[in-house]
Amino acid sequence: MLYFRNKKYTIFFLIISLLLSNVYIPADGDTVKASSEHRGIWISYCDFEDAGLYDKSESEFTEAADRMFSLLKKYDFNNVYFHVRPYDDAIYPSDEFKWCKYISPEPTDYDPLDILIKKCHKYKLKFHAWINPYRITSDKIYDPGKQSTTDHIVNGVKEIIKNYNVDGIHFDDYFYPSAHKGNQLYEVPVENRMININYMVNSVYSAIKKYDKKILFGISPAGNVEYAESIGCDLETWFTEKGYVDYIIPQLYWSDNYRMGGKKVRYYTQTLEEWTDLNTKGIPMYIGLALYKAGTRRSEDPGWRLSNHNLSDHVKLLREYGCDGMVLFSYLYMFTPSGKKETASYIKLLSGLDIKTKTIKLSSGKKYNLAGKISVKKSFRKGFTYRSSNKRVATVTSSGIIKARKKGTARITVKGVAGSKAYCMVKVI
To answer: CB of 72 within 8 A of CB of 125?
Structure first.
C-alpha cells in the first residue's frame, strides 16, 4: 500500500483504488508455481533476420521457425518469450496495431504468429507473447496516465489471447522513461508513475484471468531495483499482492567482476540477493541473464571479457538462492563467437556432461570404451563427437572407442550439445 503526504496524490490514489475494486482479484491458488526449472530465452525483433524469419515466403518462414524451435528443444529450453509487438505494431493481422516491419516490409499473406505458436508447441515449448506495452518509438511512449492508453494495451492483449493459443503474455521494462529533465513525462513523480502502471498491470492481469486463468502474465523489470522503481515498477506490490503478476524476471545483466568506485564488486550476486530478499511471498522468479554481453569489452564490467563461464556461474548461484529458473537474452547471441563459448559452458552445466574416469592407462594396442564412462542427463545423451590431441599416441573412433598406439600422453575431448565439452587423459605405457 502507498501513502502520500500530498493530498492531491492521496485523492488520486483513492480513485484508482475504487476503480481496481471492480476488476478481477484472483482466489488462492490461481498463481501457478513452477514445478520444474524454468529455462527460457527471449527472441527479440533484432533476432528475426538472423533466425531466418525476416521477409520470407510462408514455406520459408515455416521451415525457419521449425529449425529454431527444434534447436531450442535440443538445447533444453522449455519456455520462449517471442517479440510479437516490439513497438506500437504487431507481427500478426491486427485491428489495434499497424504491421510490424521487423518481420516483413509489408503484411504477409500468412499469419506469422500462428505458425510460430504451432511450431513452438510441436517441440513442447511454452510460448509467451512478448509485448512492449507503452513504446511507440525508441524515444516516445503512450502516456501511462491516460485511460485511453490502458484501454489500448488491454484491447491488444485481449486480441492476442482470444485469437492465439499462447501460454502467456509478457511485458518488458519499457514503462516511464528515466526521470531526467528533457525526457518525455520526466516531471511525473514516482508515486504517480507506480499508480498509473499498477492500474494498467492489474487491468491486463484481470482481463487475462477472466478469459483463461491458465494463461500466465509476467514482467521483466530492470535489474537495478532503484532504477526499476524510478520508472514506475511497484516491486513491493507485485511481489506481495495478488492481482498483478504470475512471475517476475529481473534482468540481472552484470558479472561478478564489476568495477564500482575503483573496486571489484560481485554485482550479480549483490543484485541477486536484493531481488530474492524482495520476494517474501515466494512467487515464481526467473533470473534474466545477459548472454548478449558474452566476450564484450566493458570497462565497468570486465568479467564478460575475462571469462566464458559467467552464465553457468550465474545459474549455479541462482539455484543456491532458490530461484525457479532463468531466461537468456537473446537468441541471436547463442551463435556469435563469444556467445557460443558461454552457451557451451551453460549447456555443460545443464546437461551434467562429465567423464567419470579422468585418467586412463593403457598398454600399446589395447582398447577402451570411453562412451560407457560419459555421465550426462538423458535428454543430452546423443550426438557426441570425440577427438584425440595426439593420434600417434591414441586414437578414438566416432563411437568412443580409444585405441592405444604408442607410449605417451593424449587428451581426449568429448563434445556434446551446443559445443559443451568434457576431457580425460590417456596414458599409453
So the answer is: yes
CA–CA dist 219, 161 (Å, integer): 17
Residues of the chain with pLDDT under 70: 1-35
Nearest one of 6, 112, 97 to 55, comparing CA atoms: 112
Give pLDDT tens digits for 203-228: 999 999 999 999 999 999 999 999 99
* Rounded Cα gap, residues 114 and 125, in angstroms: 15
What is the overall mean pLDDT for the chain? 93
Peptide bond into 330 cis (omega under 30): yes
pLDDT of residue 20: 46
The dotted CATH code for 33-351 is 3.20.20.80
Contact 131, 170 (CB under 8 A): yes
CATH 2.60.40.1080 in the chain, residue ranges: 354-428
CA distance readout (Å), 164 to 84, 137, 410 = 12, 26, 55
Q: What is the pLDDT of residue 18?
A: 44
CA 34/CA 70 separation, integer angstroms: 23
CA end-to-end span of the chain, whole Å? 74
Torsion angle defined by CA atoms of residues 337, 339, 342 and 348, in that order, rounded to the nearest 10 degrees = -90
Rounded CA gap, 379 and 63, in Å?
24
Q: Which residues pair with 247 in a beta bridge?
A: 218
**354-428 has CATH 2.60.40.10 classification:** no
Ranges of CATH 3.20.20.80 domains, the chain: 33-351
